[in-house]
Design brief:
With 368 residues, the chain is an alpha+beta fold. It is globular. One of its GO terms (molecular function) is acyltransferase activity, transferring groups other than amino-acyl groups.
Length: 368
């Protein structure tokens, strides 16, 4: 229990799905949500005025280091109860929970234009800016109808092949989830594909030695990517769909007009999108392949029930970011990552936050 402005007392407690889901859903709409959810409740009348979610992740870096990090997602405070210290109390509560769970660092993200959140994170909670990423959003209804080029081959990988190939390439990323096998085996992951040019070929997955360092042995151009289906997840967890619309509604109105929905629309359980993750490409013709990848995902989206959008998120230093098709109906949202150390490090050389900007990252689809 804490006291905020005007002697108002607020209880910070853990979220209860049985009793809080409806009112937290309303709070999400008013604000434009294994993890833990915390809520802020006014003691005088039991009104829920804030919510936050935290989860634990295990990540690796390009230098070979491994870390336990906490991710803070979906911080929301009712508009009429802002500037009263509730957001700060929720942040401290979830940070304490993450520390108890063994997190060494906490990460969170917000839009560049969200000044209120940025000030809270940097000035009051001592977070530092780590990376800028771009979320690319395109309506499924605008899928390109051009046929796939005949010289481009498409292979859907067996999950074990995908795990092996990703693990051999993740070392090129500044930060990535170490449980990639868990992600790929999730039922929400629709599969992993490789695109390459037929005349060039690509990696021989049957040979472990040839897969260890093929970048130096071949000039082939190829791209690997996986697709995550949020539609079913949002049916089971409506608060996640509300969080998604809060983020996406800040983009341009173009994709909402395509869907015949107003920007202020409340999310329904029949909303979802396909998320392209694990995008990695090599070779001097990856630009041509990237166009086909996006076309493929858009076509697939038309076959998935309730899928309305195609999303991908890439760091500003990711080599593929310059090859994302910039069609007229494509919207871009700047997503800024912030980080903070939760423990004292004896050797700053081992500290994740002093390694410089994290510009080429593997975005975990479970965060959407």
């Amino acid at each position: 229990m804490v006291e905020i402005a005007d002697h108002t007392k607020v209880l910070i407690r853990e979220f209860s799905e049985d009793t809080d889901i409806e009112v937290v859903g309303k709070l999400e709409r008013d604000c434009e949500i294994e993890s833990k959810k915390g809520v802020a409740e006014l003691l005088e009348n039991g009104e829920l005025v804030g919510v936050v979610r935290g989860c634990i992740k295990h990540v690796g870096t390009g230098s070979g280091a491994k870390y336990v990090i906490g991710c803070i997602l979906g911080l929301r405070v009712s508009p009429i109860h802002r500037r009263m210290g509730i957001g700060l109390k929720l942040m401290k509560s979830v940070e304490e929970w993450l520390l108890r769970k063994g997190a060494q660092y906490t990460f969170l993200a917000t839009e560049e234009s969200n000044t209120a959140s940025t000030n809270l994170f940097t000035y009051k909670c001592n977070y530092r800016k780590l990376s800028s990423l771009i979320i690319f959003v395109q309506p499924v209804c605008s899928a390109v109808e051009d046929p796939m080029p005949r010289d481009i081959k498409i292979e859907k990988l067996h999950v074990d092949e995908a795990i092996f190939l990703y693990k051999s390439r993740l070392r090129s990323k500044d930060i990535y989830p170490t449980d990639i096998d868990v992600i790929l085996k999730e039922k929400l992951s629709l599969g992993t594909w490789v695109f390459y040019f037929e005349e060039q070929g690509w990696i021989n997955l049957n040979s472990e030695e040839s897969s260890k360092d093929t970048a130096g042995e071949t000039q082939s151009s190829w791209i690997i990517f996986s697709i995550w289906n949020t539609c079913e997840a949002y049916k089971s967890h409506p608060l996640r769909s509300l969080h998604a619309i809060a983020t996406l509604s800040h983009a341009t109105e173009k994709f909402f007009s395509c869907l015949n929905l107003p920007v202020s629309v409340s999310m329904q359980s029949s909303f979802g999108f396909l998320f392209l993750y694990g995008l990695h490409g090599e070779g001097d013709k990856v630009g041509e392949l990237m166009k086909s990848v996006w076309n493929f995902a858009s076509r697939l989206g038309q076959t998935v029930k309730d899928s309305k959008l195609i999303l991908a998120e890439l760091g500003l230093c990711d080599p593929l970011i310059k090859h994302v098709p910039k069609d007229s109906d494509m919207s871009c949202i700047e997503d800024v990552w912030y980080g903070k150390s939760l423990i004292n490090h004896a050797d700053d050389k081992d500290e994740l936050l002093v390694q410089g900007s994290l510009g080429n990252v593997f975005v975990d689809p479970r965060e959407f």
